[in-house]
Amino acid sequence: MKLSYFNVKGISEPIRLIFAAAGVEYEDFRYPLEVVDLASYKFNRKEFDDDKNNGKLKKSMGKVPFLETEGKVICQSKAIERYLAAKFNLMGDNLEDSAIIDSYCECIRDIKTSYFSVKKTNDKDGIEKWFNETLPEKLLDFESLLVENNTKTIKNKPNLAEIKIYHFLIEFFDNKKAVKNAQKKCKLLKKIVNNITKNKRISEWLEKRPNTFM
Asked: With a threshold of 0.85, does the pTM exceed it?
């Protein structure tokens, strides 16, 4: 299998974490990304633009990431995550488990959407309030859902939701201190993050992965 994305973590890092958790080898192809202005997210991506203009990315609608496997191209990061998690048995033991795991991932997506709606305003006070008030409330609600569903923490092999929880709470936000404070009362979420961090395969990936600017 071949995963194509830019030379950053970004939305492909959960996919790479899935490969790591499963212990599966793959080609991690990365288009070079040169910073022009990080504040305004302006980059030089000549190789990617050339491939796009030459029609090489038609099967992914001109976007990355995409996964090449079994002679097919799968685009859209969330679709890739679900495909790999199902393929590597990281979606529970039955359809009900799979649906619940999927629902947890969507809950995380909802919290991200809430954050982006505030972030795009560039209102520093509003953003600070979101981290200090909104995020702790949402994480407590999420924690309650996990407890209500009797979610068991990982042992040797994490599921997709646990990987996504780790990525969300540890790698997604720039304001690490605020996120750490927001999850103070969430014992189960912190246990999941701790178990993912200690997972042998994932910790090996975190140690060896390329050091990128974002």
From this structure: yes
Confidence band of 94 (pLDDT split at 50, 70, 90): very high
Does some domain include residue 213? no
119 pLDDT more than 80? yes
Alpha-carbon distance 185 to 206, whole Å?
26
- Planar angle of CA 161, 162, 164, nearest 5 degrees: 65
| Residue 39 reports pLDDT greater than 80 | no
Q: What is the CATH number of the domain that holds 7?
A: 3.40.30.10
- Please indicate, yes or no, whether residues 194 and 113 belong to a single structural domain of this protein: yes
The crossing angle, in degrees rounded to 10, of helices 77-87 and 95-119 is: 150
CA distances from 48 to 13, 56, 65, 69, 168 (A): 19, 9, 11, 20, 27
Query: How far apart (Å, rounded) are the C-alpha atoms in residues 100 and 155?
Result: 18
* 143 close to 188: Cβ distance less than 8 angstroms: yes
- State the Cα–Cα distance between residues 21 and 165, nearest whole angstrom: 14
Question: Quick one: which of 142, 136, 141, 139 has its CA closest to 178?
Answer: 136
